[in-house]
Amino acid sequence: MSLPHKLSVHIVTYNHARFISQTLDSVLMQRAPFDFEIVVADDCSTDGTTEILRQYHQRWPAKIKPLFRDKNVGPGQNFGDSLEHCRGEYVACLEGDDYWTDPDKIRLQVEYLDQNPDCAFVHHAVDHISWPGGENLGTFPTRPFRKERPDSRTLTMVNFIQTCSVMFRRKWLPPLDEHYRNLKLGDWPLFVLLSQRGWIGFIDRAMAHYRIHRHNNWNNRPSDYKIRAMEGMAYYLLDRVNQDSKDYWKDTILALAFKDFVLSVKSLALRKSFVNVRRFVGQSMEFKRPFWLFDSLWPYYRANSFARYARSGN
User: Fold this and answer.
1) Is the model's pLDDT at 243 over the cut of 60?
2) Where do the H-state alpha helices sit in 19-157?
3) Do the bridges between strand 199-203 and strand 167-169 make them parallel or antiparallel, or are there none, so unpaired?
4) Higher per-residue pLDDT: 247 or 106
5) What one-character DSSP code corresponds to residue 175?
6) Residue pair 88/64 in contact by the 8 Å Cβ criterion
7) Ramachandran area for residue 219 (φ above 0: left; ψ -120 to 50: alpha; else beta)
8) For residues 96 and 128, what is the distance between their CA atoms, to the nearest angstrom?
9) 116: which residues sit within 8 A by CB, 6+ positions away?
10) CB environment 234-268: b (16+ within 10 A), e (fewer)
11) CA 246 remoteness from chain centre
12) N or C: which end of the chain has fewer CB within 10 A?
């Protein structure tokens, strides 16, 4: 039985009235020799995003499938629920404040996955653009991460994958349970779980813009929040990745604990420093990963500089 669409474009949005038209237009401009649908999940926006989506749906009723909510449920729930509405063989991810810049993007990625059946997902280079200034802040991922088939350890150290660049096989989408939907980070653990099914592909061509603005949920969070979010994600994955990857996630948890300790020392929070160092030593003993061999954790510690990581939706 054939699938109704070759591709589902999955967009999550919340209060993106300033951006969502450009986001949708960047998808509608795609030159694709196959049918694709656009599933847009609006998490009860209050700024006019909903009305814009209704207008686009009226103009392209067969192409654009908006999902509206009666109340705000948060990025994890919105992301997980709406993925269940995607029916394509492949799924391409996008968020309501980013947009694609290359009209051949989805064609190139579909061809890549068609030609590489063992590839779990493929991503590409993305330009980071300041808003409203429009300054190009650089192309990501950085050079060391722009390659096919990266070592599986790499994705435990840093999320070098830009969400707006990803296309994956829907049949390999893992179960996204309530635990997943309550995580503060959604894209990074999804990429990790997908990578358990096959290798990671890459196209070295910048085909999207990721907006950097003051409303970015992740970029503006304090370090404590980011540590807790990544730690929660790491424990979640520790129970779900294959045996070969478990030690990598234990190292990530230890590196985060050590980072927490260093931050408390720098802030002269003596009581918190004592609690954090005991916690670090306790986790080291629990995982049977000797903390005095910290040189093995150093790449993880450096990667967790919190300068740039996976994003939440709202």
Assistant:
1) yes
2) 20-28, 49-59, 75-83, 105-115, 154-157
3) unpaired
4) 106
5) P
6) no
7) alpha
8) 15
9) 122, 201
10) bebbbebbeeebebbbbbbbbbbbbbbbebbeeee
11) 20
12) N
Give the pLDDT of residue 308.
Answer: 42
Return the DSSP state at 153: T
For range 44-51, the mean pLDDT: 97
Asked whether residue 153 carries a pLDDT value surpassing 60, the answer given is yes
pTM above 0.85, yes or no: yes
Q: What is the pLDDT of residue 225?
A: 87
Q: CA-CA distance, 224 to 260, in Å (whole number)?
A: 7
Contact status, residue 257 vs residue 161, Cβ threshold 8 Å: no
CB 88 within 8 Å of CB 110:
no
Any idea of the CA torsion for 306, 307, 309, 314, to the nearest 10 degrees? Answer: 90
Q: Where are the alpha helices (DSSP H) in the chain?
A: 20-28, 49-59, 75-83, 105-115, 154-157, 178-181, 187-195, 223-238, 243-266, 270-287, 298-303
b/e per residue 27-48 (b: at least 16 CB within 10 A): beebeeeeebbbbbbbbbbeee
Tell me the backbone φ, ψ of residue 208, rounded to 5 degrees.
-155, 160
The mean per-residue pLDDT over the stretch 226-242 comes to 93
Q: What is the pLDDT of residue 219?
A: 67
Q: Looking up tokens 């996976």, which residue turns up?
A: 310
Q: How far is CA 164 from CA 177, 211, 295, in A?
A: 23, 11, 34
Task: Give the whole-angstrom CA distance, residue 230 versus residue 189.
Answer: 10
CB 230 within 8 A of CB 304: yes
**Which H, E and C letters describe 118-146, residue by residue?**
CEEEEEECEEEEECCCCCEEEEECCHHHC
Asked if pLDDT for residue 206 goes beyond 90, the answer is: yes
Calculate ∠ Cα 207-149-75, nearest 5°: 55
Residue 306, pLDDT above cutoff 50:
no
Whether the upstream peptide bond of residue 103 has omega within 30° of 0, thus cis, is no
